[in-house]
């Protein structure tokens, strides 16, 4: 039984890593669709959403089975609940990638639309955050997860800056309003992706902490020969 | 053991109902802050966020304990996982209420800012959706949950309409841009709340289905004297 649980936890982790790499790729495509004004890339992002949704559902079902059939406890249970949240965060990042891709399509139809330099900055930062959040999960690397948390504030600042820049643009020339609203939409979606990578990083920290707690508890148990059976 | 599980499931449901009613109240305040331009109500919403966050954390911890100590299976487990998702949805509705309240504050500082009639329409619809989603959860009422799903499309349409109306306003008079962006922000947050109430309604349907499945399984068991013990 113990070994089967371990095997299934490993398989759950592998599924999440796979989902993470798909979401990372799709998010990268959405960014390129915006920056290079490529409608075909945007279309790919929109089409990938269904795949991401069914990956989420599969992982959710695997988690349900794991909980029901293996009845894991302590840090295994914490890992599973963290996995469930990361799964949901990844699916939501996929949704934001779709929103960004839709804005990319709207922008590519307006040849005159301006780009603000804050957008590629935010995109690069958010992309790095996602990569680091996923790597920190794979390697269970708390310092890397901490880096993700720090970058989130900078992305928030850039998001606010984009709104102010768009207001200036529109006051200067009202014809920029449609494009400007798309830039605000892209910026806001990037900011939300940054938030979700922050959630993932926090789950990694929570999970790492649980491991530490488990480790200490086992040391303690070894010393005192505790035999906790209740409740 | 069985009885203790039942008691704790009942207590989990009560906590969620309580959280639901707090979130509903706070969301109602946020709407009134926008429509009546009341900065003090907006402040109340912002202050309530911490309370909602700690309610979410408490419920999450109760769920963790329930899973670890009671090791529930089948439809009880499904109920707990649905509860976990509803808990998270409610907390996110609280976050959107804060965003709406912040926009209400920004708007109340601009006496000249216009209001669009779509905003109170969306607010009323979303408010009803939230009430119905929570009631359908309390009463485990699938038809009521279905009603929530149907209204979601109408809110989406209104959200798109708000963006178009703001574009017209701004093209007419660029001084309306700041207020217009706040209206778009409010509209988008209302639309997101509608999405989250839809999630809750879907969880209720999922949960109701599990009950039906359980009910059928029990009937079947009674008839055929099945004795399923594996895996």
Overview of the molecule:
The structure is a homodimer of 231-residue chains. Chain A has 231 residues and is mainly alpha-helical. Helix content of chain A is 87%, strand content 0%. Chain A is built from six helices and no strands. Chain A has helices at 2-35, 39-70, 74-108, 118-139, 142-172, 177-224. The radius of gyration of chain A is 21 Å and the shape is elongated. The model of chain A is unreliable at 218-231 (pLDDT under 50).
Sheet with most strands of chain A: none
What does the oligomeric state look like here?
A: homodimer
Q: What coarse outline of chain A follows from CA principal-axis ratios?
A: elongated
SS-based class of chain A: mainly alpha
Q: List the helices and strands of chain A in order.
A: HHHHHH
Number of contiguous helices of chain A = 6
Give the helix proportion of chain A (percent range). over 70%
Contiguous low-pLDDT stretches of chain A (5 residues minimum) are 218-231
Q: What percent of residues of chain A are in strands?
A: under 5%
Average residue-wise pLDDT of chain A: 88
The N- and C-terminal alpha carbons of chain A lie at a distance of 21 Å
Radius of gyration of chain A: 21 Å
- Report the strand count of chain A: 0
Largest interface, counted by CB within 8 Å of the partner chain's CB: A-B, 22 and 23 residues
């Amino acid at each position: 039984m113990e070994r089967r649980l371990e095997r299934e936890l490993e398989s759950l982790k592998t599924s999440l890593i796979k989902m993470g790499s798909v979401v990372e790729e799709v998010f990268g495509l959405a960014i390129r669709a915006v920056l290079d004004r490529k409608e075909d890339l945007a279309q790919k992002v929109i089409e990938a959403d269904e795949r991401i949704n069914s990956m989420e559902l599969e992982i959710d079902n695997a988690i349900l089975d794991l909980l029901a059939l293996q009845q894991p406890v302590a840090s295994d249970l914490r890992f599973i609940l963290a996995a469930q949240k990361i799964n949901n965060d990844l699916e939501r990042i996929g949704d934001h990638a779709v929103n960004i891709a839709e804005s990319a399509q709207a922008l590519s139809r307006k040849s005159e639309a301006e780009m603000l330099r804050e957008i590629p900055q935010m995109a690069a930062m958010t992309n790095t955050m996602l990569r680091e959040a996923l790597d920190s999960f794979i390697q269970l690397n708390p310092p890397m997860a901490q880096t993700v948390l720090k970058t989130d504030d900078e992305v928030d600042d850039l998001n606010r800056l984009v709104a102010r820049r768009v207001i200036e643009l529109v006051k200067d020339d009202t014809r920029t309003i449609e494009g400007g609203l798309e830039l605000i939409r892209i910026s806001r979606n990037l900011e939300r992706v940054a938030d979700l990578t922050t959630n993932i990083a926090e789950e990694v920290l929570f999970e790492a902490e649980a491991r530490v707690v488990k480790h200490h508890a086992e040391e303690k148990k070894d010393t005192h020969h505790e035999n906790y059976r209740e409740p």
